[in-house]
Amino acid sequence: MKKTTKKVGWALLGMMALAACNKETEVDPTDAREYKYVRVMVSDEVTNEISIVDPRNGKVETFQAKFPMGALYTTESGRFGVVVHRDNNLVQNFDTGFENHGDHVDVKGTPKWAAMVGEGKLPTHFKTKADEVILFNDGDGTLSVGKESDFHVAGMKLKTIETGLKAHHGAMAKFSNETYAITEKDGSVAGTLPERVRIMDANGKQVHASTIQTKGIHGNASDGNVAVFGSASGILIVEASGKQRLIAHPADFGTAWFGTIMEAGQPGKFVGYTAAKGAYLIDLATDKVTPIVQTDDIMQAKVDYANNRLVILMHSGEVKIYDLKANTLNTSGNILPATARDEKQKPQLAATSKYLYVTQPKTGELLTVETDNLTNTSRIKVSGTPFRLSIMGMESSEDH
């Protein structure tokens, strides 16, 4: 009897311990803090310092890039940050150590620089598709590409794809069929902006020629099946099949056009932004261009990390958050003092589903603002003159 009681006692203790363990790994649905596996990467205008911020607990780790003023991006997987030093012909990759497994996140190592670098000439336009990073090199019209699986291979460099194109301020997008839509310069318009888009394969060979000549192209986004390019002649739609068409700008645009295109989190829908007119929803199914916010006072316009909401930060310091699926305003409020339009280094914005992050160049801080409660803010000290930022990691707090 004593033995039986002892066994039951140990079993109960084991169950209690297991329950306690499970309780520790469960995520409280009322937890208003940022997700456990989200990080914010911040570069500096003056120094080589890169700040990796864990906004959930306010901790900051510091790393040294090769140069200051790095433009920052994140791979589609969320695991790697990409630092582009355009004027120094260098691309660096940074590993969060987080690996997404759908229902949970594994930690594969400590935050660190990856071995792979890019050495293209004036790397500028960045895109990511599946496990590939892609950069358009303005200096010679080539592409630089690399797979995440090679990022930690010693001595590895981004592969150069020779396109046979003239040097220009270009852009590209990768389709799900492994081909690329890439801009080309035909010289019909003065300056560095391209006028056309062709489709090529992974070796740089043309698959589909351009069928539409524009008066200048800048900015693009893709959902894998269709690539959308901003152009002075209208919104240029390029399908993976090679078919191309233009969608007209709203009638009151005059000479204004979308120089920034962003994904809107739904098939066939994109956001077009121009400082002169505001942000608009582009629906490829109907070819309609619908206003989201009409103003010429926008300082920053960014789609959040999950591509569900558009965040607008005005020069006045007011922020507006829009639901892209419904095209409705979720919330708005002032989070900053007004910023002069001619300010040299303006605050930069990024957002997750839970928080907004805004650099404070004059105080060396990162402002955090809860999206569901704009009065819930905090400031995290980063480098002396924060320059650019990018969200990395995964919107998850689930462990293995």
UniProtKB/TrEMBL annotation:
Domain of life the protein comes from: Bacteria
Source organism (scientific name): Persicitalea jodogahamensis
Name of the molecule in the record: Uncharacterized protein
Record flagged with keyword Signal: yes
Signal in keyword set: yes
Signal peptide boundaries: 1-19
Keywords: Signal
InterPro entries: Quino_amine_DH_bsu
